[in-house]
Amino acid sequence: MGTFSIGCLLQSQQDRTRSVSVAEVMVDTGSELTWISAETLESIGVVPERRNQRFVMANGQISRSISFAIIRVGENLTTDEVVFAEGSDMQLLGARPLEGLNLRVDSHSKKLVAAGPLVAAGNRRHL
User: Fold this and answer.
1) Beta carbons of 68 and 13 less than 8 angstroms apart
2) Closest C-alpha among 62, 72, 61, 66 to residue 25
3) Which among 44, 89, 97, 113 could bridge 80 via Cys, Cβ 3.0 to 4.6 Å?
């Protein structure tokens, strides 16, 4: 697929007036969650809801804190868990928020595009 980065806006769920633009997050469909630097999350008042969440990395296991934030990419938004990235951790936009944003990866153009209509339950007739 190759890699590419995008910009996004993060907002506090508790106070939507508190937001921060993140110029570059790598789109990573191999990561379930979004990883944003702890300093960035704390700057908008996002505090850990769960500590010591274990993650399996290529070089072993690590633990990080997790909370919730609103993630905006262009006109699309979702709310999801975010990981408090530390030290040399990369900032990533994971697969789960991509679903919530209703965006998919166009690997040829290296950009995110609309995923199309959402699937809803079919209309059932009662007999």
Assistant:
1) yes
2) 72
3) 97
To the nearest 10°, report the CA torsion of 109, 112, 117, 120: 130
Element (H, E) at 54: strand 50-57
For the stretch 10-53, pLDDT in tens is 999 999 999 999 999 999 999 999 999 999 999 999 999 999 99
In three-state secondary structure terms, 13 is: coil
Q: Evaluate whether 66 touches 33 at the Cβ level (below 8 Å).
A: yes
Question: Residues, the chain, total?
Answer: 127
Task: List the structure tokens of 65.
Answer: 């804190």
Helix (H, G, I), strand (E, B) or coil at 33: coil
